[in-house]
Amino acid sequence: xxxxxxxxxxxxxxxxxxxxxxxxxxxxxxxxxxxxxxxxxxxxxxxxxxxxxxxxxxxxxxxxxxxxxxxxxxxxxxxxxxxxxxxxxxxxxxxxxxxxxxxxxxxxxxxxxxxxxxxxxxxxxxxxxxxxxxxxxxxxxxxxxxxxxxxxxxxxxxxxxxxxxxxxxxxxxxxxxxxxxxxxxxxxxxxxxxxxxxxxxxxxxxxxxxxxxxxxxxxxxxxxxxxxxxxxxxxxxxxxxxxxxxxxxxxxxxxxxxxxxxxxxxxxxxxxxxxxxxxxxxxxxxxxxxxxxxxxxxxxxxxxxxxxxxxxxxxxxxxxxxxxxxxxxxxxxxxxxxxxxxxxxxxxxxxxxxxxxxxxxxxxxxxxxxxx
Amino acid sequence: xxxxxxxxxxxxxxxxxxxxxxxxxxxxxxxxxxxxxxxxxxxxxxxxxxxxxxxxxxxxxxxxxxxxxxxxxxxxxxxxxxxxxxxxxxxxxxxxxxxxxxxxxxxxxxxxxxxxxxxxxxxxxxxxxxxxxxxxxxxxxxxxxxxxxxxxxxxxxxxxxxxxxxxxxxxxxxxxxxxxxxxxxxxxxxxxxxxxxxxxxxxxxxxxxxxxxxxxxxxxxxxxxxxxxxxxxxxxxxxxxxxxxxxxxxxxxxxxxxxxxxxxxxxxxxxxxxxxxxxxxxxxxxxxxxxxxxxxxxxxxxxxxxxxxxxxxxxxxxxxxxxxxxxxxxxxxxxxxxxxxxxxxxxxxxxxxxxxxxxxxxxxxxxxxxxxxxxxxxxxxxxxxxxxxxxxxxxxx
Lengths: 372, 397
Known about the structure:
The structure holds 2 protein chains of 2 kinds. Chain A is of the alpha/beta class. Helix content of chain A is 25%, strand content 29%. In chain A, the strands form 3 sheets. Chain A has a 6-stranded antiparallel sheet. Chain B is an all-alpha fold. In chain B, strands 1-2 form a two-stranded parallel ribbon.
């Protein structure tokens, strides 16, 4: 690696102001001096509106842990857009994302991606990963929430005879259920892995209102470390159930923790790990927006108090930096020049000149000037 | 302090950093007046009413909006294709120079490298540094990251060019591109005996144009007169030193050194020297055709006081001149042959100027404004005529 870097430096004497990577990119598109890239190697359709995209990342990519996600840049009509997608490939293998067509960017990925296409990448990240020590696990997933969990299952089940995994996956209909066949095959092959498919088209939404529903699907759920990934309502319900169980058995919970992971213990929010793909933004009542001024772009727009400044800017034709659009990746940071913003997640009104604000989760609270 | 358009605004980010302590938004710095008229309207546009100028502004805005709506994947593919071709030419040219003891290899290598450098500076570098391709959000092709094969560092040039020249186009005393502090290029610039050397200075400048621009971008006059801080000067000098060393090393040391392996060291050095000179003479010619040929106007500061968007557009049109010619010629000039359209819409992708030009010309005809254009040789001759004429004292011709 060090020798490579020295070689690149020597070569740059001849390529300046370009970097040697810029020249190599003529021959292999994964090379870039500034931007991690990957080349699509295979596209596998999963359901009618989802597909798995395998890619070969360039130098600078770090191997992913099962359950992590990566930001992927895609070009729509010449403009690069970034979204976050969970990696569905097992740890230790070349990365792949499984994408469901839910919007403009995911639609293009699912329908128009071909082997040889270039994807723009950011290294994998995220804490929704397997526990360090073996524990019985319960996976609760709904819809495309199966994606990170699939990576975990693929990593764990075939390679660890001591694994003990129960997966309850909810989808609308069997034909919408991503990875259904592979999951059934794994369950047949490995007795330490159990899958329950729940089809909301037949049975309605999975009931987390009381413990009874879950008891019938997985009687020992309380002693398992639980992972949940799915739509907002699904995760809120799960969180509420775990919190209610913890409140109902405060003592058990405490003693359980004292006894450690091996002993029987009651459900406890600590044992529920959640991956959210949407941030619920506070709806507006009585929140005044204001005049938003994009100074360097010379644009002014009247904005309401509920629209993220990122959307306001994009709608006004300003070249806004953006990333996850859910307030986690900080790619959309912009310096505030004047005014105050309201954090749409917390409702907190804040802002001082020079402060970097997350435009994807901040709305105008009165007149706002941004330095872009 | 009135004239700024949203098209030049990309470059003002760093220069207009006004610190605001109160959370009360200030009006944007340097915004154009919404209504009204400049203190004096330039003579070529004196026949227009305020309402006509406003209408002209709306028509040009509509032309821009039309392109913005169409801009997309095909434009992105265009710039990537040009970059790919340029890099191919550059590699091929340099490779040929490595064996340039062979005469044919020398001619091929020098020609390809000249071509590559011209493409890189004009259609690629100049336009990317204008932010014409920022909309793609590609960090590899972006005004904030691009560095070009030209001695002056991209960031210094962006300040004097995108901000000062495009904001204050042809305003004597504000836009130093009127003669580059070296030549007397306008009757309103006072004559001194020094001006007698005009043709000589210009002839020397042409083959070393990139070094002239590098010195110009240091803004020595502003430094001497206290408008530029010592820190800024030190920073710019350092940036230029680093850049110049890299450029010098690549063309005049590294390439000949590798060529020495085939006994072509001296020939390769002659090749890179020639390629740089060819590019310099070409760039100098194209740029002089932009604002100096017969028919282009210069302006006084009164003419920009109170300028509206419409008046700003008018000034860009009557202060610039186009070059007519083939598609290949347009690309080789970086579409600066569409100087008028470029000055109206500096950050529209250059591949779209050709499509805009007939509409702009039609607007000029309808509003009775000059639209200066002509073939390359005529325009070059016309700007050289001005260089000679203004060597001698005398007011308006």
